[in-house]
Design goal:
This protein has two domains: about 110 residues, FAD/NAD(P)-binding domain (3-Layer(bba) Sandwich), CATH 3.50.50.60; about 90 residues, no CATH class. About 25% of the residues lie in helices and about 30% in strands. Strand 6 and strand 7 form a beta hairpin. A five-stranded antiparallel sheet has the order 6-7-8-5-9. A three-stranded antiparallel sheet has the order 1-2-3, with no helix packed on it. A three-stranded mixed sheet has the order 4-11-10, with helices on one face. The protein is α+β, with helices and mostly antiparallel strands and about 220 residues long.
């Protein structure tokens, strides 16, 4: 009863709109090519030739953040997903609840607003694109079979299939905080598939760090754990 379902695309744009309303500037489609750490702040060089200066920097770009961290903190995995053609019915199972298996390899299922069924999982280690593309047809069939085993009375015809890369950690927890090699810089790395939850934790913790406050949970998510 305490669970929730959100459209990640819409919620991201709503958050960006709220930031803009509060005075922030949002710049997309721009790569940061270099980060220079100075005594009183940071200086970023972008792919457009512009320079951005700031007192503090927060890096929150998922597994791409590894390039800024000397030690290895993540393991890359490939995950697979398929979505069905639209169904005529809106009711598939009990309250169309989100389903997530705890076993490994896991399986997750959810429904969409246009009466489709989306399921994914069957992860494999690594992120090689050639291997990923080679595995996609077989993983699609594996996902279809898993669905039919769970819901033999429901039809499922795949309309779209895809695969992607995500990062996880050895203990399943995110990394939040700073490292000595990157002064004036904070990391918000919500690895493991729970990014929305971990991002809220990171936002609270980093705000308190900037305010020079002590957070009781900082050691749990630190790079030194």
């Amino acid at each position: 009863e305490d669970g929730a379902e959100a459209d990640a695309y819409r919620i991201t744009h709503l958050l960006l709109a709220a930031c803009i309303k509060m005075g922030a500037t949002v710049i997309d489609n721009t790569e940061v090519l270099d980060i220079l750490h100075k005594k009183n702040g940071v200086e970023l060089t972008t792919s457009t030739g512009c320079t951005v200066k700031a007192k503090k920097l927060v890096i929150a770009c998922g597994y791409e953040s590894q390039r800024y961290i000397p030690k290895q903190v993540q393991q890359l995995q490939t995950t697979f997903a398929i979505v069905s053609e639209p169904h005529k019915t809106k009711d598939f199972w009990y309250k169309n609840a989100l389903i997530w298996e705890t076993r490994k390899p896991y399986l997750y299922l959810r429904t969409t607003d246009d009466n489709r069924i989306l399921l994914g999982g069957k992860d494999v280690q690594g992120s090689d694109p050639d291997r990923r593309n080679h595995l996609l047809p077989r993983k699609t069939k594996d996902l279809e079979k898993s669905f039919c085993d769970l819901f033999p009375s429901l039809s499922f015809k795949t309309d779209f299939e895809w695969a992607g890369t995500f990062a996880s950690t050895k203990d399943g927890l995110p990394y939040i905080g700073s490292i000595p090699e990157r002064p004036h810089t904070y990391f918000a790395l919500g690895f493991g598939g729970n990014g929305i939850t971990f991002s809220m934790i990171a936002a609270t913790m980093i705000r308190e760090m900037l305010e020079k406050k002590k957070n009781a949970d900082s050691d749990i998510f630190s790079f030194n754990r």
